[in-house]
Amino acid sequence: MDQNKLSVYAQSKQETCIANDKIPKSLYEKYGVNCGLRDKNGKGVLTGLTRISKIVSFKDQDGKKVPCDGELWYRGYNIYTLIRSISKEAYGFEKIAYLLLFGEYPD
After folding, report:
1. What is the 3-state composition of the chain as percent helix, strand, coil, each rounded to the nearest 5?
2. Which of 68, 71, 82, 102 could be a cystine partner for 56, CB 3.0 to 4.6 Å?
3. How would you write the pLDDT of the chain (107 residues) with one tens digit per residue?
4. Virtual torsion, Cα 90, 93, 98, 100, nearest 10 deg
């Protein structure tokens, strides 16, 4: 792919990336997430919110937080589902890379 075609393609996907990766500022306050190197008291580390992955290591059981078998979700897909899908498809790596870059599974 020549540089001009690549540039045109990247520009055509810009809005998709922005739409799929934007996190409302209100969620930082709601969940108490710092979005800088310092918290309100001058202490802290860099933290953030992501729509790329989710890790589940605890479940609520009778109102208590209990450890569970871990789950990894990637862009809303269970990682095991993604793994099973690429074993049957010729372009599994490319589809997962597309999912990472653009926030949606390709058609």
Report:
1. 40, 20, 40
2. 71
3. 688 898 999 899 999 988 888 888 888 888 877 666 555 665 555 456 777 888 888 889 999 988 888 899 999 999 999 988 887 767 888 989 999 889 998 88
4. 150
